[in-house]
Structure formats: C-alpha cells, structure tokens
Design goal:
mainly beta; twelve-stranded antiparallel β-barrel; 4 helices; globular
C-alpha cells in the first residue's frame, strides 16, 4: 500500500505531493491493512506560483480486503479483472484555492473546496510497466470542472529493502476547470487589473515523477520523491501564472498496520 496525503488546507501543494508518490488505489489487488505516518512537503502556493511553501503533516489511510478504501484522500472501491486490470470508483475532494494565498491572486476571489466523484483504472503491461488513467469531476466555481489523467508508470524492487517508482502523466482539463483556476472574467479583471482571459479545454500539464522507498522494517518505510510539472496550453499562458514549470518534493515516514 502506498502512503497517501490530502486535506483542504494543503491546497495545490498537497495535491502535487499526492501525485508525486504515484498515489492510485488501482495499483494491485487489495490487501487489508492501513498506514499512518508523517510527511514533509515542499512546493508552491498554487499551480503557476513562484512562491514556495513547505508543510509537515500527518497521514492516514486504510484498505479492506474486499476492495473498499478510506483515508484523508477519499473513499472508494476497487475491483480486479484478472491479474492485470484493476479499476474502481472514488469520492474525493478538490481543495480549491484561496485568494489570500498570494498577491498574484488578488481580485480573483476564492475557488471553494468541493467534493469530486471519479473513476480510475490501471493495466499492468509487464516488466514493471503499467498504463493508468483516472477521471474526476465536481471542482471549480460551479462544480462543473473535470480532469482526465493518462499516464505510464514503472516500478521495481531494488534488492530486498529498496523500491523504485516513476511515472509520466498528462492531465487534460475541461473549460470550466480552466476558467475557475486560470481564467479571468470581466468582474475579476476589474478587481485584479488582469485582462479578461478565457481558456479553452485542453492539456493542463505534463508531469514526471520519481520516488524511492526504503523498507526500514516490515512495518516502517521511508519514501523520498521528486516531481517535475510543466504547464501546457492555455493554462501556461494565464495571467496569474508566474512560473510555468515547477518541482515539488516529498519526504515521508510511514508505519503499516
């Protein structure tokens, strides 16, 4: 089971760190157990920001043998079809964005946190490779935002105590999502001084992640990870974007029970 992290106050930094660890319940046939831990996260105030932010926070998740899972990152159910395909449904949380997080957001207002519903699937390709995808909807100003992830991951044990993980992921967003997080309406333009900006649906970003886990004991593990994300398309050209590429880092200590 992979360590998982999420909460409303963590904003985009925690979301990026979740992705850095390659968090997806559709990774292997479910095995009952949980994990509690502590994670240190380093990233940015919001996606497109040039202001760094560091957090240290507790983590918790649990998976049942029948496929149900629950934790601070959401609740859902996973199924398997043969040895290669896992898929499922999930109720999660979009953490929104606070205007007060940065002067670059002044006049744009808050994007409220909201529940997200979605599904995911993973197909093992062999030799440590797997293709995966996920869809989630319900975010944004009118809860009409939707995101679609498509990715390729690779994982392999390095001896008895080390585990290597990596992935390459492209994230597509609909127009409602991009308008909420990267657009500027006429009212927002008056308040912020930005020009009106109306992004179209398309590729939001492409990211690459690598992580290394050391198994201290059968229960204890230490994971370090780094993710590089490049904004793309209309998201990259948004007026509040100060940095089109970003590196986020994570160091997490976990205890399995």
């Amino acid at each position: 089971m992979v360590l998982q992290v999420s909460a409303l106050s963590f904003s985009a930094l925690a979301a990026a760190s979740l992705a850095m660890l390659g968090v997806a319940h559709a990774q292997q046939p479910p095995r009952e157990g949980g994990r509690v831990g502590l994670a240190a996260l380093g990233g940015y105030e919001y996606q497109g920001s040039d202001e760094t932010r560091t957090l240290v926070l507790p983590t918790l998740d649990y998976t049942w043998a029948n496929g149900w899972f629950a934790g601070v990152n959401g609740v859902g159910r996973q199924w398997s079809a043969g040895d290669s395909l896992q898929y499922g449904l999930k109720l999660g949380y979009d953490m929104g964005r606070e205007e007060g997080r940065s002067t670059a957001l002044r006049g744009l207002g808050n994007v409220d946190a909201s529940a997200e519903v979605g599904g995911f699937a993973r197909f093992a390709l062999g030799r440590g490779f797997a293709a995966k995808t996920s869809v989630r909807a319900g975010s944004g100003l009118d809860n009409k935002g939707a995101l679609w992830d498509v990715g390729l991951e690779y994982g392999q044990p390095l001896g008895a105590s080390w585990r290597l993980g990596s992935e390459l992921v492209a994230t597509y967003a609909n127009a409602d999502y991009l308008q909420s997080y990267f657009g500027v309406t006429a009212k927002q333009a008056q308040a912020s001084g930005y020009a009106v900006y109306t992004p179209s649906a398309g590729l939001r970003d492409v990211s690459a992640r690598v992580s290394l886990t050391y198994l201290i004991s059968p229960q204890w593990s230490l994971t370090g990870g780094l993710r590089h994300t490049q904004l793309m398309g209309d998201a990259k050209d948004a007026p509040m974007v100060r940095k089109t590429s970003a590196n986020t880092a994570l160091l997490a200590l976990g205890y399995a029970f």
